[in-house]
Structures are given as C-alpha cells and as structure tokens.
Amino acid sequence: MRALSDSAPRQGAYRIYFIGGATAVDLGWRESTLDADISTDDDRVLGEIQALKETLQLNVELVRPEDFVPALSGSSNRHLFIDTIGRVSYYHYDPYSQLFSKLVRGFRQDILDARRLLSEGLVEAKKFRSLVAGIPEAEYARHPNLSRKAVGDAIDEFMTQA
Length: 162
Description:
The chain is an alpha/beta fold. It has one domain (2-161). It is built from eight helices and five strands. The chain has a five-stranded mixed β-sheet with strand order 3-2-1-5-4. A hairpin with a 2-residue loop joins strand 4 and strand 5 (88-92). Helix 4 (95-105) runs antiparallel to helix 5 and helix 6 (125-133) packs antiparallel against helix 8 (148-161). The longest helix is centred in the C-terminal third of the chain and has 14 residues, at 148-161. It starts with a helix and ends with a helix.
C-alpha cells in the first residue's frame, strides 16, 4: 500500500479496492495469495504498477466481482474503509459482491473465504439472499454462463453448510 501510494500522481485523490485474496491476506485470514486482486476508479493511480509488481515480486490482477457475476444493488455504498496513505484511500471491495463471486466460482479457497465473510460478520445471510434475489433478469443476460436457478442452488447449498 505504501509503495503504491508513493507512486501515485501528486494531484488528485484516489481509491483502490482490495478483492479476494488481497482482502483475505489484509484481514489476516491467510498468510499469502497467488495474486493480489485490486480495482480502482481512476487508472492513473496505477501508473507505476508494473514496476511495483516486479520490485515487490507480486502478481496483481485488475478485476472486480462484476467482471464475473451480475452487480448487486448498492455495492458502491458497502466498500469497507481500510486506510488512507498520502492521496490514496484503500478499501475492501463490497463484501456482499465478493461473497457472490466466490460462491459462483466455487473453488475450495473461495468457499473458505466465503465462510469467513459470514463468520466475521462482514456479510449478513438474509441481506445477501435479498440482494441476489433482486438481480434483474437483464443482468443475468450479460453473464450467459450463469442462470438464476444455478446461482440460487449454489447459494442454498453453501448456506446449509455454513
């Protein structure tokens, strides 16, 4: 975070969002991640990201949950503040969106992280179900590899085991 903040342009204020493994490592759920998934509203803050990746020997992926699953209503209001260093403020991306993408992907580590999102109180199950139920059909059309039924089944299975 310090290295990225130090390399940020000197004018303006920026936001960077931690996602997936980056969130899990920052919250102390695991020691490392294969890649640090991040997102930003302004790509100018990432001007030195290639050099930082090499210097820190870190693989950084620029992704958001909405790249893989339909957007959940109100996600921009649920980011969790971490810290501000210089001109850059850091947040954990909306935990509800993170949970949704992890459940849809369904890898073992995703399910473990999903359980932590619930057990740590970052996501409330009833609200999560309501947000997913509120996804318009048009959003599923943008993700043709998903169906409302398959998503609902995956969530039901997870919630009965959680």
